[in-house]
Structures are given as C-alpha cells and as structure tokens.
Amino acid sequence: MTKSCLQPVIGKVKVGSYISVVAFCLLGIIWGSCFIYMKMAVRFISPVQIVFLRVLFGVIPVALLAYSRGALKWAHARHIGHFLVMGILATALYFCAFAKGTSLLLSGVAGAVSGAVPLFSFLLALVFIAEEKATRTRLLGIAIGFLGVLAIARPSGSDLSWTSLEGIFYMLAGSLSVGSSFVYARKFIIPLHIPAVALATYQLTIGLLLLTLFTSFEGMGRVFNDGGAATALIIGLGLLGTGFAYIIYYYLVDSMGAVAASSVTYLPPVVALLIGSFIVGEPISMLDYLATAFIFLGVFLLKKK
User: What is the pTM of this model?
Assistant: First the structure.
C-alpha cells in the first residue's frame, strides 16, 4: 500500500531529488503519529486544551521561518477575511474535531477515518470548482470510500457503540472541515500569490486567537505533571506535528508541486493503524484494515479522470 501511495509522487520527482521523497515519508510518519499523541494527552486535559497548546507550540517555528524569509507583509492584512476562514476550517475546527474524535476512538481507527479527507475535498470541489468533473469512476470512488467509513464505524467488536459513533462523527466533521479548506484555498487563497509559509503563519495565529476565546484554561497544567504526555503534546503535536509539519509540507509544495504534495495525506492513516496495532497494542480488527483499504481505494479512484 505504501508503494502505491508514493507512485504519484515519485513520477514527479526529478532524478536525484531523494530529499523530497524522504521529506514526504517523514511528513506522513509525523502526521500519522499525532493520533497516539492526542490519545496520551487527553488522559489529563480536554481536547480543546490539547489543540490550544498544539497550535501555541506549533506556530512558533512557522512564524520564525516566515519572519526570517521576510514573508510577512502588512499589505497582506487586507486579506484577513480569507485568513480567518482558513484559521477556522484548517486549524481551530479541524484540530478540535480530530482531538475530540480521537479521545473517543482507538487512535488507529481515528487515523484511518481521517483518510476520508480527500473524499470530502473532491465532493466540495465538484460543487464549487468548475474545472472538476464527475465521472462514473470518480463517483464509484466516492461510494467505495464512504462504504469504508461506514464499515470502520464499528471499531471494536460486533456491537455498535454510541461512543464510537460519536467519535466517527467528530472525525468526519474534522475531515469535512479541512477538506473544505482545501477547496477554499484553491478558489480564494492560491490566487493571492502569498508565500505559503506566510499563509501558514496567518492561519495558525488566527486559529490560536480563536482558540483563546473558547478554551478553558482551568486544569491545563495537569498535562505537565506527566513527562510522557507533556512531551507528546509539546514535541509530538506542537513542534513536530504542527510547526515542523507545515514547514515540510510547504517545502514539498515548492519542490514537487501542490498536487503531488497533497498525496502525503495517503500515509497518516496507514501509520496511525500500524502504531495503534503493533506499538500500542490496540485491539484493531481485520474489519478495520479492510475498511481502511476501501477508503484508500476510493481515494485512488478519485485520481482517475
């Protein structure tokens, strides 16, 4: 499965550009690891508090890089409305929904459901992007992908759990949110020709400000009483999973192109499942793996014209 995920990327990489391939794989591992980090932190603080600290520690390296490159301009302020939308869709709402969903599910299952992001992105693109066309192959891909989501909604045994269904709902809500952000960015943000690292800084900063309004800070310090949870949150989710991940992603966009770089979303569900099953020992069933395969098949068919 991993080999097939890399095929659309490798074809676009120039001979000798092995750094891009390494960065691609590294980003998939970092994002796929975020689900177990959230699971560790939620034992001590709420999902919203996790997201606040994640964005707080994540925006720092991105902002420093943007500043060092001179990418931040006061003239960009006239587009603050667009940055606000991205701060909601691609940061605050997206991260909060995923954190809440992960708190209710096995980390591997939560990661697998996140593979639905391209399905939502394509559905919305059909509605709002004139260039996108619906073909029978693509519609079949949508159907197969969501069939996988329905199958994985039973993550632990034969009995449906309302907690599990609620977790699936939150994961789908987060997938819809970030999927919407891709379409919004394509329609309104990309034409602005603002450096990607600056866009990431504005998006994360506004997301952090919004989270400040809705986060209860009572008891947030409990996470720092556990060394493992604190490290997972600050290093895993913040510095690596948000800050460093954004930097790698925009490096891939520059070196590979946006379409090829977006293929990195194929890897985190696989990584999350492997971590949950083989490292953490979560009771992930064969149905979960089969459902994930359906999601991947659906996304693969979306790439067909």
Answer: 0.86
- Residue 129 is encoded by which pair of tokens? 């992007």
Residue 139 CA to residue 88 CA, distance in Å, equals 29
The answer to whether residues 139 and 148 touch, using CB atoms and an 8 Å cutoff, is no
pLDDT, position 87 = 95
Residue 197 one-letter amino acid? V
Q: Which amino acid is at 54?
A: R
At 153-209, the pLDDT tens digits run 664 444 445 557 889 999 999 999 988 988 888 889 888 999 888 999 999 999 999
* Torsion region of 16: left, alpha or beta (phi above 0 gives left; psi -120 to 50 gives alpha): left
Q: Are 253 and 261 in contact (CB under 8 A)?
A: yes
Please give the full DSSP string across 235-293, using - where no structure is assigned. IIIIIIIIIIHHHHHHHHHHHH-HHHHHGGGGHHHHHHHHIIIIIS-----HHHHHHHH
In what helix (H) or strand (E) does residue 84 lie, and over which residues does it extend?
helix 80-87
How long, in residues, is the chain? 305
Q: What is the pLDDT of residues 53-109, one digit of tens each?
A: 999 999 999 999 999 999 999 999 999 999 999 999 999 999 999 999 999 999 998
